[in-house]
Amino acid sequence: MADAVVSDVKTPAVGRRVGRRSVSRHRSIVGFLFALPLIAVIAGLVVYPAGYAIHLATLNKSMQHFVGFDNFRFLFKRNTFWMVVEQSCLFAVTAVIFKAVVGFVVAHFVHNIPQKGQRKWRGMLLVPWVIPPAMSTLAWLWLFDPSYSAFNWVFAHLGIPQVAWLGNAYWARFCVILVNVWVGSPFFMIMYLAALKSVPEQLHEAAAIDGANWLQKIWYINLPMMRNIIQITALFSLIVTFANFDIVKILTNGGPVDQTHVFGTWAFTLAIWGNDIPLGASVSLFMAPILAVAAFFILRNVRKRGNEA
Amino acid sequence: MATVTTAAEIGGSARRALRYGSISRGRRRALYWSYFFLVLFVVFFLTPPLYMLVTSLKSSAEIGAVTNPWWVYHPTLDNYAALLGDRQFLTFFKNSAVVSVCVVSVTMVIAVLAAFSLARMGFWGSATLATGVFLTYLIPDTLLFIPLFKIFAWVHDVTGIEFINHWWILIFLYPTLTVPFCTWIMIGYFASIPKELDEAALIDGASYFQVLTRIFIPVALPGIIAATIFAFTVSWANFLYPLAFTTSADQLVLPAGIVTTLIKGDVFNWGQIMTGALLGAAPPLIIYAFLMDYYISGLTAGATKG
Amino acid sequence: MAQVALRNIVKMFDKTPAVQGIDLDIADREFIVLVGPSGCGKSTTLRMIAGLEEATSGEIYIGDQLVNDVPPKDRDIAMVFQNYALYPHMTVYENMSFGLRLKKFPKQEIKQRVEAAAQILDITNLLDRRPKALSGGQRQRVAMGRAIVRNPKVFLFDEPLSNLDAKLRVQMRTEIKKVHQKVTTTTVYVTHDQVEAMTLADRVVVMNAGRIEQIGPPNELYHNPKTRFVAGFIGSPAMNFLPARIVNGGSNLAIRLSEKLSLPVPESRTARYKPYIDKEIVFGLRPEDIIEKRGAVPPGSAAFDVQLDVVEPMGMETMVYFIVDGIEVCGRVNPTAAKEAGENMDLVADMTHMHLIDPATDQVI
Fold first, then answer.
1. Which of C174, C201, C233 is the last residue of a domain?
2. Domain check: are C83 and C200 in the same one?
3. Which residues pair with C214 in a beta bridge?
4. Which residue in the set C28, C68, C220 is minimally distant from A2, CB to CB?
5. Topology of A71-308 in CATH?
6. How far C72 CA sits from the closest chain A CA (Å)?
7. pTM listed for this prediction
8. Least CA distance to C70: which residue of chain A?
9. What residues in chain C have their Cβ under 8 A from chain A's Cβ atoms?
10. Element of type H or E holding A118
11. C314 and C227, same structural domain?
12. C77 in contact with B at a CB cutoff of 8 Å?
């Protein structure tokens, strides 16, 4: 049959032939068109404004002429600026560390209880993340109220001295961090819980047979297995916390005496209330280096994850 | 081994069991501790919203009285009646709703088209663009609002259309926050669809657009719901943009409206503020209550996919 | 219904060649199987016929039309994928009718066609189920149904059975053969399993490293392999290969395998091997041609005696392994005749089925 078959096939006549590679070119053109709205949004509303911010930072207050680095020189001479730098870093780093610890601990507790109850607990524990932060911060503001603080009422009954929550600089710093941890740790909990679920149970069983106690299991198995998620979540949260606005704005509005301002709120105060847009832009630009470093590490971790999968 | 258990072995294992305590008892104790701490954390996490609820049910007189702030002695719905009967508050609600619905629609159209393109079609520079999408998500609103403010002022100078202090300017602003992340997680969801599925559809005669609408969107529906929820919560909750771009009372959206109008100078009407905050938090909370699994999958997708 | 022709097809992936110059003519209604180890380019070739990959150079014809630049949807082909690629959100009926619905066929005709195809494949009772609720074999049938419904010019199968368990695979293999007998559409079928290739194909195309090694009907490939690769790839267990030397053993030629072991070449092959006297060659003989000695040695066969190394009873037959000059050789003997490992056994090699390979070219002499 073989030979008969081959002779059956006439060499086909040369058919119509459109330009080479038209199929793959068509594909990339359609692909590009699908991505065009995204490109427009990113270019017009994110990339261009981000670049424009740099330009704005080099103008004088009335935005009429170029002053080079004068805005930055002015900032460097102001005490408030250095206070904001210090507070932003303290705020972001402390809050992220506490969020990570609380999230890690709570995730383990949730993971410990029987599977069928987990959904309910997880549901309740994520509530702070779901409420718009501006709304929940109002509740905290009311809880910290100077004359009606519900915490102070409890303290009074327990015989603990009253606390001037938002009136004292140190307590005010504590409060913004506390509220931030309250808002953010549920996110860490969810991420860590997802990571915990992906640790194979056999590893724990193998470790138990090798004689590991619960702490050693966490240290030698969970932590290394979750390392990537822990890093990504922490870096990610670092960016968000560093750029925080809502909580500080509502809780203290920077006070008392600018002690709790972070870059976001101070830039807002300078640019919108003080009507000095270039100075506000200069302040907000100081977030960029931290963001860039964190973004670099996140991207590296995400890529690594991609390769592992 | 099981068949040749001698008396000595039984005795030995019993003695050992005594020394260690039973395994199941140890587990139960660990479980009780877990529940104990979970209760503590739930109390910590739920105190503010519950306190909101408690306060919202109090009259001004009761709030000012020196009674237990954690308890309502004379519950009343007056605060709810006052706010829901207040035209201004309803305007905030309407503005927020319209803005959120528009932003969600625009975002999802842009994100789904782009994610399909980046996950499957590929063109020159598409890999770089996918990374760029992720990076732009990391640029916060606190960095963008100042230049955007100037840009919209400039648009006004050129076109004569005033954007600033109109609620609909937010429809242009919120996509800066929603589009990159939604695209990013949709890329992840689309990439997890087996390649053979679109090849089969192409062979069956579908165009690329049909592959997207008839195969990808239905198959990745959970991802689309998750991204939609994300876009909605972000556009409902944002506080900075409305605070910076809108000032007139009739142009405000909920979070900014509650903060700026209910807090009048030093006069805090806490009953109404808490009621407003609770009402403002209600839509995301209700969505969360019904679609929790989608919400959580969207939350974790950013880091675990793509 | 149509013939398919490939003319000097080359496919490069980023400068690494996957397919290097393939010429193939497939007749109308023919069942062609592309077989080879993974990475040999068989799937890529199939995907180029489908239009899912673009040929770097060369020409592909379906019917009389040059289809290089025709998108898959206009090539009038249907494809069955390894993982079935059923649309998870559609019922079986919707899956099978998807292509027809896209082409805006009248509802009545769609129904008719789907039902006819379902009949052929015996899946009529599954039509309103989702893929998730189907077993592997049922999914496979639906995937085939989706192809049949379209009534295309060419069926393309990409390893359709490799996700099934062994028993089901045999069953579905028969099923595919039956369907082809009913539908008689030109079929190109890719597999790495040579048994599948042998049982299904009108002609088998053996591929290796992006090239075609040999094209032919299954039995021809088995009995007359043209290259060492084909000889080793077709048949299971694989052919034994031993380095050897052709020597002049008096009146006849002989294959000298080791110091102790020389086997005579049958007279019919003397002329063919004469030019290779005293040259290094590779001697190939299938396990089924090494059997136990039963009485007198038939003409063309050679008896020898070896010490068994490993003995593997398989039920119907017993595989015996012995060492010749450091190389393990396999024979296939009757279970009643098999000896224990370590014992000596008299075996007979059927030299009329032997193959000699030139190690320089890897071609069968």
1. C233
2. yes
3. C206
4. C220
5. MetI-like fold (1.10.3720)
6. 9
7. 0.85
8. A23
9. 3, 5, 25-28, 30, 51, 54, 61, 63-71, 202-203, 215-217, 220
10. helix A115-125
11. no
12. yes
